[in-house]
Structure to design on (567 residues):
């Protein structure tokens, strides 16, 4: 359908009331974000009026040791959480896809619950768990002091990975694995050589998802982090509570850029995997 | 397709041991402890004796906290209603757009969704504060400035801003599966577009709309960050009260009871949705038979 055709009865997307509506929604969604990014380049302490282009705030950012430390913490946590989440998520998906076992519904429910439980409930659960049940030593050397946060992040991330991998497993042809077994591969060997390559795209997009979820999390981290284990979002939160400054704008822009880039890569990988399998 | 676990015990255990152990130790145990604490009494600073008391749950029904629960439900309900009103036409436009238009509209709604929640909330703070851009615009025509930030209004705007994708995506997937000839038939038979929407599209899409409502309502109900940063002293939702019990007031048993009330509400909403879906699919198979 080219733009020159007359508008058909069902061409709702081309009718002006809907166009206006969609335009308004897009403005509502993007004006705040765009102005946030724009004012991170503004040459003024007061963030209201445009005074000229500057990269000073990014310079301030680069010299803010506490912020850099928080950023390093966040990336480390996200990386560790990603590795473990992919392994646990893949194992969960394979267990549910492959085996019939007593208590399967219970297991399925238990690994789905972290996706739906309100963040605040999980946050306080982690606070009490790492405060009372399994106290995480406070004076460990970096990065071991991040352990509690990493564990919390893995717990809410791997169920998401499991969902992604399960969706991919549904399209696996079991005969391929049986062929490998017939040709003499052991069960685990067949799993590794035949099944894993098939789910690789899901593993990659699951990994990126886990990384982004971890990097983005504020609420659960807020309840798990101590004074020496501040993450980037927690640090930004304390800055935001204090005041609206161009430095916070710059920090937010950096975080936004990273998340969007990672998600876009994940989507692209998943998209190309879909087209390959069809 | 599936094999029974005891036919290949070794590989079954190899696959399930780690995730099962993890979920029990780091999810079931922490939540069980919170659940147990909700029947307990504070002894010291962080010491709790689980006595089996129901006093904490009784305190939830104190008018002060009942009000906060009520307010949270109203905030989440209002958010969902506004999201539905704003999101439905957007989903409709997406459904009938060209392939390229679909992708653009999808990206349009997803890009903010991928952005950190904190960043999005902060962006709104900058726009809505008294020296913010909205008041600048009002100032040009000689109005204002209005106090918008730290009000209930700001909380609703913030919640809508954050939850819009939650409603648009399920709505789109429902509308996209709909049989378009039904709309054409309605239009051919002389109904206007609005009548067609109200009498044909919405009734057909009703299960999807309900599911979209739940998917928005549930996360909105448990919001912490948005009311915390955008709201004033009187716009607290349940999550803020829970946070206070655990971090400042140090009344863990009461905080635990509040957490579980929130959890029960969430599970109730999900249960209703599952029940409704089962009834729907039951009715569909009965209709096809």
């Amino acid at each position: 359908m080219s733009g020159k055709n007359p508008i058909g009865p069902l061409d709702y997307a081309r009718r002006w009331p809907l166009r206006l509506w969609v335009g308004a929604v897009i403005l509502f969604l993007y004006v705040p974000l765009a102005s946030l990014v724009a004012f991170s380049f503004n040459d003024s302490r007061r963030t209201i009026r445009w005074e000229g282009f500057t990269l000073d705030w990014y310079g301030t950012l680069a010299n803010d040791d506490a912020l850099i430390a928080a950023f390093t913490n966040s990336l480390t946590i996200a990386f560790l959480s990603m590795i473990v989440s992919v392994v646990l998520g893949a194992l969960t998906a394979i267990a549910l896809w492959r085996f019939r076992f007593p208590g399967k519904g219970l297991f399925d429910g238990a690994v789905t619950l972290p996706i739906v439980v309100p963040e605040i409930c999980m946050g306080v659960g982690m606070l009490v768990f790492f405060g009372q049940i399994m106290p995480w030593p406070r004076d460990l050397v970096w990065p071991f002091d991040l352990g509690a946060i990493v564990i919390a992040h893995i717990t809410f991330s791997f169920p998401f990975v499991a969902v992604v991998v399960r969706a991919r497993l549904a399209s696996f042809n079991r005969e391929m694995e049986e062929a490998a077994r017939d040709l003499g591969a052991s069960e685990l060997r067949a799993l590794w050589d035949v099944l894993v390559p098939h789910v690789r795209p899901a593993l990659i997009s699951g990994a990126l998802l886990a990384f982004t979820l971890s990097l983005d999390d504020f609420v659960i981290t807020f309840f798990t982090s101590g004074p020496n284990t501040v993450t980037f979002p927690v640090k930004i939160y304390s800055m935001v509570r204090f005041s609206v400054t161009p430095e916070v704008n710059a920090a937010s822009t950096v975080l936004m850029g990273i998340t969007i880039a990672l998600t876009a890569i994940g989507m692209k990988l998943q998209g190309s995997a879909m087209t390959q399998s069809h | 397709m599936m094999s029974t676990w005891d036919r290949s015990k070794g590989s079954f255990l190899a696959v399930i041991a780690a995730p099962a152990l993890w979920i029990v130790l780091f999810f079931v145990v922490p939540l069980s402890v919170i659940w147990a604490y909700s029947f307990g009494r504070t002894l010291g600073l962080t010491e709790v004796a689980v006595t089996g008391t129901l006093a904490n749950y009784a305190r939830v029904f104190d008018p002060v906290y009942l009000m906060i629960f009520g307010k949270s439900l109203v905030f989440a309900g209002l958010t969902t209603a506004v999201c539905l009103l704003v999101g439905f036409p957007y989903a409709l436009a997406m459904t009938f757009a060209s392939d390229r238009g679909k992708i653009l509209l999808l990206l349009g709604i997803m890009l903010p969704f991928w952005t950190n929640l904190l960043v999005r909330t902060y962006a709104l703070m900058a726009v809505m504060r008294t020296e913010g851009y909205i008041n600048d615009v009002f100032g040009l025509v000689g109005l204002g400035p209005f106090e918008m930030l730290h009000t209930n209004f700001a909380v609703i705007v913030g919640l809508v801003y954050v939850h819009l994708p939650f409603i648009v995506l399920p709505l789109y997937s429902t509308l996209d599966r709909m049989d378009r000839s039904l709309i054409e038939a309605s239009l051919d038979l002389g109904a206007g577009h609005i009548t067609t929407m109200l009498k044909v599209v919405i009734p057909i899409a009703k299960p999807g709309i309900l599911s979209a409502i739940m998917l928005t309502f549930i996360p909105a109900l448990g919001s912490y960050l948005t009311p915390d940063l955008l709201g004033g002293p009187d716009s607290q939702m349940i999550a803020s009260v829970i946070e206070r019990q655990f971090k400042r007031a140090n009344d863990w048993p009461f905080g635990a009871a509040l957490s579980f009330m929130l959890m029960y509400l969430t599970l109730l909403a999900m249960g209703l949705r599952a029940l409704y879906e089962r009834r729907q699919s039951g009715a569909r198979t009965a209709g096809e038979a």
Remarks:
- The radius of gyration of chain B is 24 Å.
- Chain B touches chain A through 92 residues (CB under 8 Å).
- Chain B has a mean pLDDT of 87.
- The beta strands of chain B are 3-4, 40-42, 48-50.
